[in-house]
Amino acid sequence: MMYVHFCKICKRIHLLNGHKMTCPKCSQPLTELQISYLEYISFSHAERNRFLDMCSDQNSLHKISTTYRMYKYSKWYRNLQIINEDACQNKQNTC
Ligand SMILES: [Zn+2]
């Protein structure tokens, strides 16, 4: 399966096989986008340019990006949640 990723450093879309965390070009963290591979490849040239503009904008990027859901179930993510809950209890009702 191909997934659509965006690299903020290279400012380009990467179509990559699987859920990749780092850019194949610059090795910096990638943002995975909600759009499916099939949707993206059906875009016209102009639509791709517009889409790239959206990705380059921090606010729009936030709306169209996704977090690969499997990592909610990974060990480090669960540990992170536990740490957050502890932090909340320590602050006493401030969360
Ligand atoms: Zn890159």
**Mind telling me the C-alpha Rg?**
17 Å
What's the total helix number? 4
The overall average pLDDT, rounded, is: 83
Q: What's the SSE pattern?
A: EEEHHHEH
Q: Strand sequence of the main sheet, in spatial order?
A: 2-1-3-4
Helix content, binned percent: 40-55%
Small-molecule components bound: zinc ion
| Uncertain stretches of 5 or more adjacent residues | none
Structural class computed from helices and strand pairing: alpha+beta
Instruction: Give the end-to-end Cα distance, rounded to a whole number of Å.
Output: 39 Å
The total beta strand count reads: 4
Strand content: 15-25%
The total tally of domains equals 1
Shape: elongated
Sheet of most strands? 4 strands, antiparallel
Overview of the structural elements:
The protein has 95 residues and is of the alpha+beta class. It has one domain (2-91). It is built from four helices and four strands. Strand 1 and strand 2 (12-17) form a beta hairpin. Zinc ion is lined by residues 7, 9-10, 23, 25-26, 28.
Features of the shown structure:
95 residues; alpha+beta; four-stranded antiparallel sheet; elongated; binds zinc ion
Secondary structure: elements and pairs:
Blueprint lengths: L1 E6 L4 E6 L13 E6 H5 L3 H12 L1 H7 E2 L8 H17 L4
Antiparallel strand pairs: 1-2, 1-3, 3-4
The structure holds zinc ion.
Zinc ion binds next to loops.
